[in-house]
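queue> holo job accepted (acetyl coenzyme *A)
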Amino acid sequence: MIYSKIIGTGGYLPERRVTNAELVTRIDTSDEWIVERTGIRARHLADASQTTCDLAEMAARRALEVAGISPAELDLIILGTTTPDMIYPSTACLLQARLGNHGATAFDVQAVCSGFIYAISIADKFIKTGAAKHALVVGADIYSRILDWQDRNTCVLFGDGAGACVLTASDTPGILSTHLHADGAYHPLLHVPGTVAQGRIQNGDGFTKMHGSEVFKFAVKVLSDVVEEALRFNQLDSSAIDWLIPHQANIRIIQATAKKLKLPMDKVILTVADHGNTSAASVPLALDIAVRDGRIKRGDLLMLEGVGGGFTWGAVVVRY
Ligand code: ACO
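queue> job finished
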């Protein structure tokens, strides 16, 4: 049996840190409202010259360095993003060129905030079937570019960033299971409606539209369901989980999932206060931070989960 093992992680946040106090000077909101409803205190925003590929490259190089793998050894690059540099080529191909890899399979995955969960699950299948040996999996978004900065319902929630990991084929686990779901019927609750034709955005605009409280309820339900599904599949009790690494959209959604798992909050990796929701980057960034600060150790059992526009959602169980 071939498993895929995480042998390196990396992350990158743009330098500019924007606190709630700074947002209050520009929009009708308050630090109290944002902290109480979401747990977010600050977020990092890319500057105008940066692209998603720039952020992805920083995270990817850090993950490759830890893994001790050269870009030429990669035979698979999957990148989750909703804010690609261009309509095409994929940001994965742009990243491949930056890294100097020639010939690996490379493509983007569009699953919004579940982008990394989808991407690592697909990479796991490639490795398990013997189709790839060394995979680079990245979640990267400059989500701030698809926010209407006049819309206080959405603009306070998100930030920019990138996270990455390198997977390698191994005869010991590794990723134990992956669980992916989607239900497009719910897409009106969270979407960016515009499409590009005749060189312009048509059918609406390029800004995030969200029905916050419906998204909240949906997220709590599907995340609870999918983590239970993942535990059942592996015949595990939730007490076996060493670390929950959740999508960092809202502290209250995370608390609800932890409660369902009967996991104390000190077993949950949290970045939401300082990063906000970095979309596809949120799970790999949290993973990288906890690996680097020594909380996550070899042999620990991890539950990764995410939910995003689509709707898409999923969970990944990893013996680190
Ligand atoms: N500052 C102050 N007041 C605000 C703000 C703000 N930034 N934003 C909204 N409000 C007001 C609204 O105008 C509304 O006022 P009204 O009642 O007078 O109309 C009220 O606050 C909204 O209240 P609720 O909807 O009850 O707020 P709720 O407790 O649901 O919190 C929130 C809103 C934070 C958006 C929450 O619903 C949430 O986190 N939802 C999930 C969002 C999410 O996870 N999105 C990302 C999904 S992942 C992806 O793929 C992108």
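queue> The chain has a mean pLDDT of 97.
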